[in-house]
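Section handout 9: paired folding examples.
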Amino acid sequence: MNKNVFKKALTAALPVMYSYLIIGMGFGMVVQSRGFGALWAGAMSVFIYAGSMQFVALELIDSGASLLTAAITTVMVNLRHVFYGLSMVDKYKITGAFKPYLIYALSDETYSLVCNPPQLLQGEQRYFYLLVSAMDQACWVLGSILGGLLGAALPFSTQGIDFALTALFVSVVAEQWLSTKEHTPALLGLGLSLLCLLLFGADQFLLPAMVLILLGLSLYRRGKGAKA
């Protein structure tokens, strides 16, 4: 690994790092408001590191949900990561000993960075993937601990603060939209998601939407390859 790889990784990851720091603080404040401390917030971000699922986990803990309920809920909320992982199989073949951590650290926003890396020399990609993944998680963990400490020192209402995660998703999509001239995949995903939302409702649309998006993007990619 050299300075060029570190510079490119830092430049690519900075927007997500800033966002994770702020949203992590929001999570830490919510954890503190539920009667847990900053160390619990940090531990959840180290060992769970699942973004929206961490907010859901707090609701499951508060409601006294069973382990089975928690497991099923986690699978449903994070099912999209199956599709993320499938699309990264070829890219992560070169990562060697880094692979287990990279699989674990593949959050939504990190995925948006590693699936479209900058131009790198052969052999440098694995270090780019590692640096981006580690820096993103480090900011999420740091933000969670700071938020827990801040929530203990300055108690205030946390109602609506978890919307910050939705705002981050919107900002990532906007950045991807502005950085490329090819908008068909984004429009395809949006259209199929809205269709499934109308057909299945807000509580059931995620799985069929992900399946249709995967099929739609596969057909779109195949069509582009045939034209090329």
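Moving on to protein 2 of 2.
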Amino acid sequence: MKTQPTRIAVLGGGTGQSTLLRGLKNRTEALTAIVTVTDDGGGTGVLRRELNIPAVGDIRHCIQALANAEPAMQAMIEYRFREGSLKGQSLGNLLLAALNDMAPSFDAAVTTLSDVLAITGRVLPVTNADIALSARFSDGAVIRGETTITDYKRNTSAVIERVSVEPASPPALPAALEAIADADMIILGPGSLYTSVIPNLLTAGVCDAIRASGAVKVYVMNVMTQDGETEGYTAAHHIRALLRHGGDGLFKYVLLNDMPIPEDVTAAYVPENAAPVVTDGAELRAMGLTPVFAPVASWKNGLARHDPDALAGALMKLYYEAAGTRTAC
């Protein structure tokens, strides 16, 4: 009898989510990426302002990560125009924008492009609503827009206290809530804490669905802190921010990298006040969490990131070890 594939729901956005998906696609077909839609930078921002559509960039990255299409088709989706008014714009972004105009809903447009590229699993926007991100800083400033938030943080010593979305509590896509309810494992992250991971938790129904699930629930800690968001953050700081926005019961396990990052790589991050995330297992256990350490980092071109295969392997190992004893948390 054929074994049922492990059903995994991954919530996040940005490079971190697509990196993880590249590793997981080789380990299960029952994979659902639930993607934030608050990005307003680059070509995505242009399309949002001109067409009033949800953010397409992170969606496209996830579709590309899971694609099984011919290389020529993938190269076409990745192509960026080099000149004229479309300079820097991704063809994949334009296709999603066009499909959104043709389809009855944004998620239907995402499904159509996913079908064209024969992806493994599914990619879903966390909501079909056209939402914007705002942040309240410790100096009292309230900054609207994901890109503007990052720019403001880079130029002040103030820290982000809370982020919110406008309009507040947009309805989650029903299919996203169903994927969370059906999952054997729910993964938050990796990715930008305030602009990729937390926005998913601000969508109505998502936190309740995660809490109600008996799945193995994991938060994947970033390898490095991030300029413009989490300078000086330890692992505990990340987790407190998540719980401040989403409440308790979102995850039991925290997967952390324990592979040392070479000094020449970390030195390149010094000008932007970024460094490897400091982890304290005892502190996390005192918070009622189970830290799991694994060598999941890699570095290329001076950048420290998660290794897709190592990260996916560590998560599957965690799942199989936890699955026999898991209870809703």
